[in-house]
């Protein structure tokens, strides 16, 4: 990219996985395509679909590429993907560089046939496992930790009678966060890490079963939500029905759902582990209004994940809720901008302030997080330029103080503004009239009884983590 620079705003998302198995033999590629479309918010860097026919030659057909789902797949591409069992993936790079080899699903041909695998999450022991495999002759095609999982499943499959047993044996070796969808010639398998860090759920439409990162993707294909895959559970779908193995499960008290799914990642219309995302964001906004009341004329949210929290703030405070921004929906998370116009804020490409709404008003602006601070500062500048007299910032997460090792692209400490600055210093740097972060003690109100991981705020990791940043260890 010689004349252009790649701009990523805010925080990196995760990935999304989607699997479909039509027991009646119909083609599933269109369903996988629409499922991935509904999960596009989880990753805009690359995507892919792999399908196989459980009745015919059992060959895996796959296509993947860099870009959005509708950029990589057209009608012709989907026509070529014939098969009643399929898996798809949308990717945001948390480990491994942006190149097409790192796109998923990964397709492996080995002695027992073919495996296709899609993974959301990050392994904490990927480096050791990869080195171990390399010293026994393994050759890697990618720089992503998902290939380490695929190798282990394939190896274990040589010693086991069933593919799901191979998945369980691999789970005993891998550590970290993962939601997996694996297709073998005659079955679809879903697995979730014992902590439940990454979400995965089951859906059904007539005689087709689905596995998806979020319930919104099941709704998008006209399916009915059945249940969440439980933390540590392996579910297997064959023509004989569904089997479940919970031998890897741990006590519910030790589980650790990623709290950021509820604050930011998940789509507002999803429900994860029986907790509705819309409701959890309303709760967060109300908590902010209780902790940081202020005299103001209007509450606004930064699209998209700040909007519902802003509604909660408005309901609790009694200050009217307004729409201050127009969002350009046709811009992905990452885009390029000419170097000459670097003075121009990249935020303006995505967001425009509606001057009529904010002029002459004291504004409460609710957003989900402050990572580096630059985006927030630009938005405040835009509001004040449009005539807002005061901008009071409320953030529906506590300050980021620690890196995430579980598949969320929270940057290293030196890039986290809260790591080296006080709240008052950050307020001054972003140009806000006041600044209030979510109180750590109030996070639990968002998820009720669920045990969750808040290590990016507290440093209390649910498991042993690497002493160094592993996100680009293989690049």
TrEMBL record:
Catalytic reaction annotation: 5-phospho-beta-D-ribosylamine + L-glutamate + diphosphate = 5-phospho-alpha-D-ribose 1-diphosphate + L-glutamine + H2O
UniProt keyword annotations, A-Z: 4Fe-4S, Glutamine amidotransferase, Glycosyltransferase, Iron, Iron-sulfur, Magnesium, Metal-binding, Purine biosynthesis, Transferase
Positions contributing to [4Fe-4S] cluster binding: 258, 404, 453, 456
Keyword Transferase among UniProt keywords: yes
Active site: 15
Domain of life from the UniProt record: Bacteria
Pathway it works in: Purine metabolism; IMP biosynthesis via de novo pathway; N(1)-(5-phospho-D-ribosyl)glycinamide from 5-phospho-alpha-D-ribose 1-diphosphate: step 1/2
Gene Ontology biological process terms, A to Z: 'de novo' IMP biosynthetic process; purine nucleobase biosynthetic process
SUPFAM superfamilies tied to this protein: N-terminal nucleophile aminohydrolases (Ntn hydrolases), PRTase-like
EC top class named in words: transferase
Amino-acid positions noted as binding Mg(2+) in the UniProt annotation, renumbered to this chain: 305, 367-368
MF terms in GO: 4 iron, 4 sulfur cluster binding; amidophosphoribosyltransferase activity; magnesium ion binding
Domain Glutamine amidotransferase type-2: 15-240
Note on how the cofactor is bound: Binds 1 [4Fe-4S] cluster per subunit. Binds 1 Mg(2+) ion per subunit.
Cofactors named for this entry: [4Fe-4S] cluster; Mg(2+)
General function of this protein: Catalyzes the formation of phosphoribosylamine from phosphoribosylpyrophosphate (PRPP) and glutamine.
Family per record: In the C-terminal section; belongs to the purine/pyrimidine phosphoribosyltransferase family.
Annotated protein name in UniProt: Amidophosphoribosyltransferase
Organism, scientific name: Dorea formicigenerans
The organism's taxonomic lineage, starting at the top: Bacteria, Bacillati, Bacillota, Clostridia, Lachnospirales
